[in-house]
Automatic annotation (TrEMBL):
It holds the Pfam family Cytochrom_B561. Keywords: Electron transport, Membrane, Transmembrane, Transmembrane helix, Transport. It is found in: Membrane. Residues 129-152 are annotated as: Disordered. PANTHER family: CYTOCHROME B561 DOMAIN-CONTAINING PROTEIN (PTHR47797:SF3), DEHYDROGENASE, PUTATIVE (AFU_ORTHOLOGUE AFUA_8G05805)-RELATED (PTHR47797). The keyword Electron transport applies. Residues 1-116 form the DOMON domain. The chain crosses the membrane at residues 164-189, 201-223, 243-264, 276-294, 314-337. This is Cytochrome b561 domain-containing protein. Gene3D superfamilies: 1.20.120.1770, Cellobiose dehydrogenase, cytochrome domain. PROSITE patterns: CYTOCHROME_B561, DOMON.
Amino acid sequence: MCIDATVNGSSTTYVLSSLGKQKAGWMAMGFGRQMTGTPMVIMWINSDGTVTLSQRSASDYVMPTVDANPPRVAQKSLSLSISNQDTKQSVIYAFGTTSPSSSADDATLQQHLDMGVLQLDLTKPVTASTPTGGYPSDNPTNTPATGNSDSFSEPPLLPYQKLIVAHAIMCTVGFLFLLPLGALLARYLRTFIPTWFKSHWIVQFALAGPVILIGVILGIAAVSQAKAMHLNDDHKSTLFKRWGIALLILYFVQCGLGAFIHFIKSPNRARRPPQNYLHAVVGLAIIGLAFYQVHSGFDHEWPFTTGRDPLPSVVKIVFYIWVVFLPVAYAVGLAFLPKQYRQEYSKVQMNDEDEDRNRFSLKETSYGR
């Protein structure tokens, strides 16, 4: 973006313009050298052609909020006019490529794509060759530089964004790798290895449980670090967070159901109990919902809450390959169901025969006496 400043008496008119290399969603400038505590003016053009001007400030490296009493009052225009008598002006600037969804001055902003700090020399006469900006903030004694931002590389991850990345990795590993692995182990091994349940619960509970729990904690920490709201706003992200908590609760319910099925069994059962089928259905539902949640996370939540570009296309390719592979792998394992049912039926028959022998032995003992 480009910043032009023109002094006219006691007021200075600032013009914020795009270089056309990226779509201009919103543009902003602030009067200081850092984001924290600096009065900012943010502008964007709405879908109906009107311009919104929002004066804000930030207490940290988070989305700025509306400042009801700014130290300098800006007048709305397609340019920006502010009362000012300084001869040197340090300016921070930023722009994003996504327009806010509302014309309200407190509308949610996605994170800037580029930002920087300049020093403007307001004493220079206006000529065709006069540079627009002043000096880069890192070295004010360098040769004059324009206020242009020619570089569009992604800025480094902020602390809360690093937590989001860690949260995404842990939850994806837990819900979309370890849980499906445990389900496939049960599906394939139960007809061949008597101790299949041990490997099943180790993967599903001992390994996946801590990974999922840590992932959820990291997500909560990211929201707190960003000073955002958790579950009590009306934003679409709230639905995403609530689904995440619901998945966590459903996971622990599933673990409890599995423990109940394994440790509490009726000795006189003649067929597979309904809770066994419920356990399978709930497990598959958790994995299916996790696919939806992960897709929502990288496809919508990441670019919307951070303002960053969507993830590379290779991420989506790997995701969709996994979406296809897991159901196919599980469906192939269903070919062992007839063998599984025969084994379970034979076990029930053996238990019945043992019970009949015990009764016969008791009768013989009673008759002999």
